[in-house]
C-alpha cells in the first residue's frame, strides 16, 4: 500500500529515543498539562508506537481535544514537549506538519523541562528549508512514517483520563517482547534519584537520538505487533543494572565533555579591549557546557582553559565573553520565543563594525544568557555582550566573513 496516498494532511506528535521510561507517567504528565488548560480529555488517548527499524518512539494524542487540525494542536501546545521531557530520559521533540496550500512545518526540542531549540516555517519558495523534512532526514526516517504512526511497529495505547497499567509490560510491548514479570523492580527504580542529563548535543539536535536499540529490538524490528515477537521471555531489568548503566552513561558524558573542552581550548582566538576579553570558541552554540566556561563576569584568581596564564594579571577584575557562529535563528530567543527571520528583520538595527555594516539584535541564548546576534549576508554570530557594549570589530568580522 502506498502510505503517501493515505497519509493525513495534518499530523503531529512527540518523538523521543526509546529508552527506559514509564509510559503511564508520560501520559499522566501530558494529561495534567491539558487539564491545567481546561481541555476536555474525557475521550483522549495517548498512542505510543515504535519505529519498526529504529529505536525511536512516537507519541500521538487521539480524541476531540486535538480537533480537526492535529498540526495546529501540536503547534499551539509546544509546552507538551517541555512537560514530557521530564518524563523521558533523553531529549524529545514536539513536531507538526500540515501539507497543502497552507503548508507548515515545525518542531521544538526540549530536555529536562527546558526548550533547547525550535524551528518553524510556513513559506519556503526554494523548498530547501522545511524543518521537519530536514529533521527526519537526520533521524533516517520519513515524514510518511510519522504521518502513519510508524506503521509496522509495535504500539501501546493509554487513556489520558486514567493512565494506568504495568509500566514494565507496556515498555516490553514497545520493545517487541512479550510481557514479563518485574513489578517489584519497577517500584524500586521509581524510588531512585532522577537519571543524569543525556549526552551533550555537541553533534547537533539529534545527538540524543543516536542511542543503540534496546535489547532484542533488532531481531524484532520487522514484527508488526508484540504478539508476533520471537523471544519467549522478556529480559529482567534490575535496579542495580539500571543504576550501573546510568553511571556508565554519566562517566562517558563527562569524558566526552572533557575531550571537547580540551579540543576547543587548543584552537581559541581572542582579543582584549577595555571591557576585558572576547574569545572565539570553535564549537556550536548548543554546546553550552563548553561555552559557559568562557562567560566570566569578573576574573578573580584563574582563567578558563586555553587562555595564557600571563593574561591573568591584566584581566583580574574584568570580564570574559565569547563569540560563536549560529546556524539557525531559532537557536536564540526573543520575547521568550525562538527567533525567526521576519522578527529579526523587523527588530534588528544596523551596526557598523570597522566600516562594515551588519545587523544586530539583542537575544537570549538558552542556558548562556543575553547577548547580541550579528548578521552579515547569510552568516550569524552570537557574542555574549549586549549591543551597547564594546564589540571587537576585527574578531567578529573575521567570523562573519569566514
TrEMBL record:
It comes from the Bacteria. Residues 172-249 are annotated as: Disordered. Residues 181-191 have a biased composition (Acidic residues). Residues 217-240 have a biased composition (Low complexity). This is CheW-like domain-containing protein.
